[in-house]
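BUG-315 | component: ligand-complex export | severity: low

The export step for phosphoric acid mono(formamide)ester jobs runs without errors, but we want the raw record kept on the ticket for reference. Input record follows.
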Amino acid sequence: MREMKHLLTMNDLSINEIMELLSDAEQFAKGEAWRPKRQHFISNLFFEPSTRTKSSFEMAERKLGLEIIPFEVSTSSVLKGETLYDTVKTLESIGVDSVVIRHSEDNYFAKLIQDGVYLSIMNAGDGCGHHPTQCLLDLLTIKQEFGQFKGLKVAIAGDIRHSRVARSNAETLRRLGAEVVFSGPEDWANIKGSGIAYEAVDTAVKTADVFMLLRIQHERHSAEMPLTKEAYLKQYGLTFERESWMKKSCIIMHPAPVNRGVEIEDALVECEKSRIFKQMENGVFARMAALKKSIEHKEGAGLNETMYTKCQIVG
Ligand code: CP
């Protein structure tokens, strides 16, 4: 595997690298331990709300023995107008090796890297852009179930237009040989240039091996949704009737948080086919694997190698 300093998008990883990360995540799921060779400081910067990603990154960091430098936007100088670049450079200056960042701006990391931050960035979700560790945990969940991706039909249904999870998963699953279809409200599933076919929910549920629902992301909508919650469930959601049409082996996924009774019937969230809480469990192992690869890069490259190079140039 090439050395992985940052994890920004799934597109940065080859198929072999993805499979290697999944293999490491499987080892972590079996209880394997790994520790960095030297003390490693990390900070979690969440500029958007999060339950799963933030807490499972923190769990992964603790399991790997990393030193967590607490950071909360609400008590930081971000409230005094500090820019993202200055926040990250500050943490870098005091000795933080890696940052996990969730931010509402698409592609926020490109500017940070262009402007010269040296520490490693783990993208925990950028606007409507990418969510690579969610994709890794979803892949791990599918692999545990089916052993492979080739030939599987994955239906992604719901608010696709605003979903970084849909983008990361659709592109990566296709590269891994799965058939991906978009479903749900046609207006939200019609993504220009995606090349992904659309299927009505009633069709997709009958043939999918994996039925992946998405949260309606009201916070990214410019106008109020014209449908009531009840009407959305009836027209596009996973109702008891649609669940009864699924293949016996089909699994139900959702990145969560779930709007219970909107995208899916409340009682189906924890039904036999559902892997929704399994996904959350796998989030810890997928993030341990991603952090391990990034730390291995840093250890291979030597302490602050890039910063030293710059000092030499300046000096
Ligand atoms: N799936 C996901 O990213 O959840 P959080 O927003 O709670 O992190």
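Assignee comment: Attached the raw record above. The first helix runs from residue 15 to 29.
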